């Protein structure tokens, strides 16, 4: 990806917002577009599973094939998204113990299904229920951003995974999710970070750097000290030891800049 | 399911030209590993002799010798006549004798070099993880260290052992180190079954893994590196010692 994807400024940006707040809002807007792909997948899956339930039967992998046109469309349309799909909760499907209806873009620009060996007798990686992208939406009922992390299950890429729970009749059925490779996210975020007068970087709730225009804080490293989780919870800019911390609206990332 | 797991790239790598040295051994190891790892599925028909020889970049004579060795290891069966050819046949239990034959395909020097590469990967991963890890990253490593002590058999144990080192590379936040570690585990994983059958050693490995986790948690990057290197070097030393008895 050479150019950054079109970033939509958040509609709530006010005229008096500082340039830092504008940048934080635009970063949030970029990921909001990815969350739209997740929400569409979630809606498609929930409707599909409800339809199957109305036929008084349990779903099987063959039913999930109906999701494919939508998944392919989202991969083609959303420049930041390199993988998208539905990850079933174990036991949901009648024909397999566990399943990912997951599609990825290829280097040649096509799409391909991810087909994993989920047999616990063959693979040490068959249980995916502890990964943040699965466990967070399951445990909180809310949408989540996992990472940055090395995704050695699906893509072998350093990634962010955005996900949301899918429920059928109030019961957790799995997660809808989309992968953003970190190099693509950085390509989108860097032009924004460079608009700021001083060195700036983005961290997740745990302080892990997700994108950076500051050579002293590279992606993957930890920024220690501030309680970024608390900043995100309050949802307001804060100061810490010579830095400004600005939460990105709607997504769990914090913009860190030198305090002016 | 298993056959689908290999994507085009992994499958093409199986049939990529083999370099000049020890062609027969290299072909035997390449195909044997692919079968052991499930890249080639049980019952799958291999391409015809001349086609396969062409893909691997070896002569038909070399390929025949390699197929003969694979037949002797019970990994390939050959049927004659219509519908005949060479077929993958995976014995149900990964027999210890079969693995010893595989180990004999490695010279002690090659094993030493494999161990050096592994120690470089895991040592560096441990050092970086100690710099870049926060408590939530250690949950998976802890779980894996505990699973090792409960693994049912040597094969399960070696899979979990490999997963620990892959997760360590992921905790280092390095996709490249992780990919290299995954590739290395596909080479060493089956062999490790031979040394992990020993319950006492299995406990020792679990202890070594726990001490790596502690050092990573404390941010003690030098000792994290040394502990990870020592863990790997000990396993390699055991493999080499076993190889020298064969």
UniProtKB/TrEMBL annotation, chain A:
Pfam families: MCP-like_PDC_1
Source taxon at top rank: Bacteria
CDD domains: PDC1_MCP_like
Protein name: Cache domain-containing protein
Organism whose genome encodes this protein: Streptomyces cylindrosporus
Automatic annotation (TrEMBL), chain B:
Keyword terms of this UniProt record: DNA-binding, Transcription, Transcription regulation
Cited InterPro entries: GntR_C, TF_FadR/GntR_C, Tscrpt_reg_HTH_GntR, WH-like_DNA-bd_sf, WH_DNA-bd_sf
Keyword RNA-binding: no
Occurrences of domain HTH gntR-type (ranges): 21-91
Protein's UniProt keywords contain Transcription: yes
One Pfam family from the record: FCD
Record-given protein name: GntR family transcriptional regulator
Organism whose genome encodes this protein: Streptomyces cylindrosporus
